[in-house]
Structure formats: C-alpha cells, structure tokens
Amino acid sequence: MDRSWKRYIPPVCGALGLLCLAGAVWAAVELDITWLEAFNEGGSGTFGPALGEPGQRLAAGLTLAALAALALLLLRLEGAGPAALLGMLLPVGAAMLLRACCLNYESHDFATFLARWMEYFRANGGFAAIAGSVGDYNAPYLYFLAAVSYLKAPDLYAIKLFSVLFDVLLAWGGFRLVNVLRGRREGDPAPLAAFALLLVLPTVVLNGSLWGQCDAIYAALCLHALALVLEGRNVPSVVLLAAAFSFKLQTVFLMPLWGALWLAKKVRFRELMAFPLAYLATILPALRLGKPLGEILSVYFHQAGEYNDRLSLNAPSVYQFLPAGLDVDKALAARVGILAAFALVLALLLLALWLGRRMDRGAAMAMAAVLVTGVPFLLPHMHDRYFILADVLCLCWACAELRRLPAAVLAEGASLASYLVYIRLKYNHVITLGRYQFVMALEALAMLAALGYSIAVLAGEIRRCKGKPLEEGSPS
Hints:
Strand order of the largest sheet: 1-2
Structural class: mainly alpha
Shape: globular
Distance between the termini: 44 Å
Largest sheet: 2 strands, antiparallel
Order of helices and strands: HEHHEHHHHHHHHHHHHEHHEHHH
Radius of gyration: 22 Å
Helix content: 55-70%
C-alpha cells in the first residue's frame, strides 16, 4: 500500500498550527467573547471584553506566540527533529488558541483575592510590600506579584500568562518523565504525546488560563523532580521538590516518594538535606525585605486551618459519600481522614523498606500514582484543584504504558467534573440545598476507582520486583 501521503502530515500540521497561533494573537487583541456568558450562567466568574490598550492586548497575544516558540525550542533541545516539530506545532498552536479565548474570564477568586493583592503591592512600593501581611501564598509567588505590580499590563493577563508559562514547563516535565520511564528510546512518539496532551489537558487549560490559578507551577516542578530522581539525579530532584513546596503546600502529596526511595536505598540521606537548604534559598529574599520568619513559616499552617468548617470544597474525596445534610462531627471526620492518609503513606514507606534495592522505576511510578490519588482523596478540606498532580502524573503514566490509561481517564474525569461544579461552564450540576442524596458521589467514585486501580498496579509491580535478582533492581 502506498503510504507516501504520510510525508504530508507534518507540513499540514505545521500550517494548521501557524493558523492557530495567528488566531491566538487575534483573539487576544480583538475577540469579544462575552457571548460565552451563556455557558456560564450562575457561575463563579464573568467573561468580559478585552482589557487594556490595543498595544497591551497585542503584547499578550505575542506572549502566547513566544510561549509556543518556547515549547518548540524545548522539544528541539530534547532532540525532536524538524518533522516532529512541524507536527507538534498543531497541538501547541491549538493550546495557545484555547488559552487566548480564556484570557478575559475573571474568576471570583481573582476579583476577591488576586486583584486586591495587586492593589496592595502597587500602593505599598512593589517589592517593599512583601514585608507586610499580604495574601496567603508563600514568598516565591509574592515575588512574582510584586514584579507584576511595576508593569503597565492588565493584572488579569499578566497573572494568567505566568501560569501559561508553567503550562509549557509542565508539558516539558511530562516529556522528560515519559522519556525516562520508557528508557529514552530513539524516535519514540510517547514523550511527544505526553507533551501535546498535557498542553491541552482540560484541567490544565482551565486552571491557569481560565481560572487564573497557579497550580501548574508546583505540578511542573514536581514532574521534573520525579523525572530526575527516577534517572538517579537525586540532588537536583530534591532541589526542585523544595522549589515546588515553596510555591504550594500540596507538593506534600508526592513528597513521601522521596522518603520511600531513601528507605529503598535509592536516595541518600545527605542528598535529602538539599531540601531545607533549597527552601531557605526561596525565602531569603523575603527575609531580606523585612518579612518576619514566623509569618513565612506560618503561611501553610494558616492555609491548612482556613476551611475547617468544610470537609470538602468540591473535591472528589471520600467525604462526598456523606449524604447531603447529614449531621456529622466534622472534627472527628477530619481526624479519621488524616489518620487514613497517614496510614496509606506509612504502608507505602514500609513497602519501600521491604523491597529495598529491588524497587525500580515501575514500582516507584505506581507508588507515586497511589500517593497523588490517595492522599488528597482521604484528607479533609481538599479543594477541587488539589488533584492536579493526579491528573498530570496519571496522564504521563498512561503515555509511558498505554495499559495505564484507566487511571488517567478516571482521575481526569473526576477532576474535570469537580472543576466544572465550580466554574459551571455549560454544566448544570446542583450541589446545594440537599437536592441530591449525594453531593458529588460519581466524581468521588471515579477518583476512588483511579486509586484502586493504582493500588492494584502497585501490587503487581511489587510482586515483579520481589521476583527479580537484587542486581536487576539496583538502577533507580
């Protein structure tokens, strides 16, 4: 059969990708997407007209084009050839077009928190304002907000474009992780698939470019850290893990994996000491600017206790199985969940100790999947966005091994449905007034299924590792 037509695929994809990028620039400058309000009736934010002067909107569009160029440059640095780059131009361009159509959405979170924090930075001298009490984010994200306060660009665009930058770095981290898991096979399309799919993954697109959240930052750093530790580059992996933690507390969902690798003698204790040193480096500028150390260190304690009156904030967690309106002792239920999450982590650590040096990349990846689905599933006070590590890590797992696709589909489906409960884009999911017997039981069931699947895979990986001679399990 003549398959010469295949040579036309890369240039066609490249041409379509360039059209998408042109559309992204145009959308940022001219597109009036107030008509999307029809899909957002009763939602948690509003679509509005383009912000700022025409030059500022053009700058936003060109920034999206520059981020697309960065994505292709990163792929080139990873060894992608001209044909692969042409083919990847389509998903990259489409990803930027999607984000351009989301730029004018102002979420309730942005209006209530971020916009006010930006006003505080402008009124109090930019970086000098870091010394004061502003926001409930840790120091590194405050540095970014302080820097943005000096710009003449609309805050909404600047904040979202920063998250889009990390969307690109997230896709790069997925490429590197899949490459490591598959043994760096020449010409392997799986890492490219991970890169493309992560860029267009609905929860990733919605999180940053629509919602204006910054979860892609710590998720990207976690993927890179995981890729590094699985290829034996332990110190830089720990440094990136500390950087992720300095941005978001939710990094703790994955952090026990490094403890497991230490117990399995894959990571040395002295290498783990890079964590406090790297974390200290991230907060030193804030200390030099006059921010009290106690205030910096208490940020995460404040976050952890902020929503004690709610067992779940639209998260597909175990607490969604409680019937709506049921009178429960929330403090007791929260303690039970914390103990269950602790028991899960402890069980994984003991398994790693039992496996020892036989623990390999397959077992470590399965353990990571159990952590990022199981820990937030069991913990109380989780938000809908806290499963982003489950979304992206399970997708990478599926790209590395197609048979792991159920975990990716279940985790992303549960997470996306939870996002839409909050954002309510073309979605009629009522969660108030006890109208349904269960609040979000289907979403929680899907995440539970993803967790159960991951545990079953981990059990198989443990049996395989225990059946190998010790020397075969020694590489990390």
